Amino acid sequence: METETEPYVRLASLRELHQVVAQLNTARSMADTLQTIADGTVTALGFELASVNVVRPDGDLLVAAVAGSDRVETDKAEAAIAGRTGSRESWERRLTMGERWGELRFIPYTEGWVLDHDDVPQWHTTGPAPRYPDEWHPMDRLFAPMCASDGELLAVLEVDKPRNGRRPGPWGCEALQLYASQAAIAISNARLRGNMQRALVRLEREQQALRASEESFRQAFEYAPSGMAIAEVGGDSDGRLLRVNDALCRLLGRTVAALRRYSFADLVHTEDRAVLMSTTNDGGRAELRLARNDGSYVWVSLRNSVVADAGAGPQVQLTHVEDIEERKRHELALAHRASHDSLTGLPNSAELRARLSSRICATPPHLHIPVPTGPEAMTAAFFGQSGDVSAYARAHVFDHHEHVWQPDAPGGDGKGLAVLFCDLDGFKSINDQFGHVCGDAVLVEVARRLEQGVRDNDTVARLGGDEFVVLAEGLRPSDASDLAMRLRGSIVPPIRVEGRGVRVGASFGIGWAACGMTTEEVLESADQRMYVEKRARAQGRRRAS
Predict the structure, then answer these.
(1) Which of 39, 425, 466, 527 is labelled catalytic?
(2) Longest C-alpha distance within the chain, in Å?
(3) N or C terminus of the chain: which is more exposed, having fewer CB within 10 Å?
(4) For 183-211, b where at least 16 C-beta lie within 10 A, e where not — what string?
(5) Residue 228: phi, psi to the nearest 5?
(6) Which residues pair with 516 in a beta bridge?
(7) Tally of structural domains, the chain
(8) Per the domain annotation, does 394 fall within a domain?
């Protein structure tokens, strides 16, 4: 593009411009694209020097490409400005103060001196004043801003030293402006390609990490030393086991196919269903029993966590199943030893008192007020007929405790909670004559006979020494007397110990538990009645002799 004074533009110039525009989108990277822009400016637009200042993420502009027709001069320019940065503020000043040549900005040498000391890299040198009006001066500056379709500034193309020595005319400005717009598209495309490439690399890394994570999870799941299970959450098959590991199969003695037909609700012990239901799906923990294939149960600790896919899609519940049979057996054994007699295995004194106190309360039955059912009854019960709030506290309106009555108490049904206090007769002589080993064997056999003589829901406890207590609920006084007689009769037969037969007798005192009494009062009452019977039996034997 040697002259613009001609009334036409040479076809060769258009071809050169077309070729460099076509090359803009052939570059494979952003750096190649920027260098192609600078090279094309020198090749087709008639300037001997050009630089591309690209906008960085922080807003400042970096000299990313330099091109020139003279190698020596180009090297000097690259050494002076390549890789250096100018602030966005300084560049905004240049683009604002320049003369507007369409989309271009021109700053003549007469005004550019004010920019000599800002932070924008430059190669300009001084020179003599122009000899004619449109002669290019070394301090003249011409910028072509390159903007995205939304107006965002992407880069600035700076050109210098037109080959014809003149400031560009209408054709030259139009060509530079057209080239800058095409260069902006190339930069946008290069940035898009770069973003896509980075996204693809990031996606591939994420997929690799996901595959590695999935493989790690699979191995951790499959080869975990304790049981692992994945179950459905929600829907018609809520809780159904989708996946189980070998450890869980071994623990429950079932195959993978068999377990996938169940949920934990199907396998849990009936007494532990409430525990399972109260366990939350996410972060819940429970200790309960699960059924094995042979019909036995094993104690396990369940820990749950809910896993949802990233798209808020289906959820599954991951459950860790730990075998705690040994620990639970130890705990139960400790609890049993704490509440049971070590010799006979019967509930001990503390357990007896606990069971007795669970059945009686401090409120006498005749003061108990039934729970009201209607609003008016509720108000009357709460405040009392006189509005006394304390009446409510004394009445225990919301106490759903089933009160225990004496058999002969008014309003009762003639039945009660019988407390049979048993003391062995002649036991001391056995200890003295045959020793404590024999005495212990007698106590064990007496305990066995007492347990065989009562109902399943009755309690036989050992208070200590040769004293036993039987709790039997729902008995009439005649029933309690019959029970005492049967138990006494079961104890009387000889007990074989170390090849000899020994005999003990038994005295029973029958007391009755009732709300309003303490456990000590109940036991003391039965104990006193036992001593009354023991003295009466002793007197009867003396008279008979």
Answers:
(1) 466
(2) 162
(3) C
(4) bbbbbbebeebeeeeeeeeeeeeeeeeee
(5) -135, 145
(6) none
(7) 3
(8) no
What is the amino acid identity at position 390?
Answer: S
The DSSP element (H or E) to which 289 belongs, if any, is strand 285-291
Instruction: Return the structure tokens found at 122.
Output: 């430059």
Determine contact, residues 225/247, Cβ cutoff 8 Å.
yes
User: Residue 224 burial (CB < 10 Å; 0-12/13-18/19+)?
Assistant: middle
Domain match, 409 and 296 both: no
- Whether 466 is catalytic is yes
Query: Amino acid identity of 542?
Result: R
Which alpha helices (DSSP H) does 224-311 contain, by range? 246-252, 256-259, 264-267, 273-277
Buried b (16+ CB within 10 A) or exposed e, 235-257: eeeebbbebbbebbbebbebeee
Predicted confidence band at 182 (pLDDT cuts at 50, 70, 90)? very high
Q: Does the reported pTM lie above 0.85?
A: no
Tokens of 329: 């057996």
Tell the burial category of 411 from Cβ atoms under 10 Å away from its Cβ (0-12, 13-18, 19+): exposed
In this structure, are 121 and 70 located in the same domain? yes
The token pair that represents 267 in the structure block: 């396998």
Query: Token pair for residue 158?
Result: 């700076």
- Clarify whether residues 234 and 181 are in a common domain: no
Does residue 383 carry a pLDDT above 60? no
Sign of the C-alpha dihedral computed for residues 22, 28, 34 and 39 taken in this order: negative
* Amino acid 533: pLDDT: 87
Q: Tell me the residue length of the chain.
A: 545
Q: Which of 66, 111, 70 is nearest to 84 (CA)?
A: 66
Clarify whether residues 327 and 354 are in a common domain: no
Give the number of other CB atoms < 10 A from CB of residue 161: 18
Instruction: Give dist(CA 502, CA 439) in Å, integer.
Output: 10
Please tell me whether residues 250 and 148 are part of one structural domain. no
**AA identity, residue 525:** S
In a domain, 380, yes or no: no
Backbone angles phi, psi at 159, to 5 degrees: -120, 155
Question: pLDDT tens digit string along 187-242?
Answer: 999 988 888 888 888 888 888 888 887 888 888 888 888 999 999 887 777 889 99
**Of the candidates 313, 323, 198, 162, the residue with the CA atom closest to the CA atom of residue 249:** 323
Mean pLDDT score of the chain: 86
Q: What tens digit of pLDDT does each residue of 459-484 get?
A: 999 998 999 999 999 999 999 999 99
Neighbour tally for 10: CB within 10 Å = 12
What six digits make up the tokens of 149? 């379709």
Question: Which of 148, 179, 194 is the endpoint of a domain?
Answer: 194
